[in-house]
Specification:
heterodimer, A: 176 residues, alpha+beta, Immunoglobulin-like, 2 domains, five-stranded antiparallel β-sheet, four-stranded antiparallel β-sheet, 9 strands, 47% strand, B: 85 residues, mainly alpha, rod-shaped
Chain lengths: 176, 85
Amino acid sequence: MHTVWVRLNAVVFFGLTVLLCLSILAALSKIGHTRYHQPKIHKLALNQLRSIKNHGGVDRALLSFDLHADMTPAFHWNIKQIFVYVVASYKTDTNPNNKIVLWDRIIEATDPPSAKIIKEENVFVKYGLMDQGAELRGREVQLQLMWDHMPLTGTLYMGEQAKDTTSTFTLPHDYL
Amino acid sequence: MDYEGQKLSENLFYYIIVLFGSIGWIYGYFLEDFTYVFYSWSVGVAISLVLCVPDWPIYNKHPIKWLDAVPGRDGTKERETKKSK
C-alpha cells in the first residue's frame, strides 16, 4: 500500500473479488425459482404431417405443429436467455429411445414481453424428423417442449413440459 | 503515504466498494435487473480509485518519527537520546 501501483492493484482486484461475490449471490438467490414458476404450455400438438419419405435408406418425416406457450415465468433477474426447443421422441425396434429436436428458438431476457409468449399455428419444423434407419413408419411419436435456462452467472439448467400434458401422434404405415 | 494513511486508504476502498455493491445488488434484485448491480459496483470502484489511489494530503497526517542517526565512526559524539520533534 506504499505506492500508487500497489494501491491501484489492491483497489482493482478487491473490486473484482466483490463483483465475483455479488455474481455468486445472484446465482444463489434464484435457487428453487422453478419450483414456483413454471412456464405454461397450453398446446403443443401436430398440425399437419407434410411427408414421410425414404432418403437413401433413411426415413424422414416433415410436419408442422401448433405451439402455445407462455415462457414468462421462466425469466428472472439472473436469466440471460431461454433456449426453447421441441423434441420428438419415439421407439423403434433397433433403438428403444430416440429424441429428435424439430424446432428451436432463443428468447432473450431483453426481448419485449410479447416475445416471451409463443402463440403460433402451423409452424413448419426447422429440422426434419429423421430416423437412424428406415423404421419411422407406423411409429407413435411424442412431442414435448423443453427449454434451457441460460443464466448470467451460475449453472445452466433445463426445464421440460410435464409428461402428462404432452401430445402424441402416429405416423402412417406407408410413405407419403 | 504514512502507515496510518495506508490503513485509512485500505479501509476506505474496502467499505466503499462493498457498500456500493451491496446497495446495487439489493436494488437490482427488486428491480429484476443485474445491470444495476454492475453500474453501482462500477461507481464504487471509480470513487475508490479517485479517493484511495493518489497520495492525498489526508493520508500524510502521521509522519513516521525516525530515531536519530547512530553516531559517526569517529566516536566524537555519544549516541544522542531521542529528541522529540
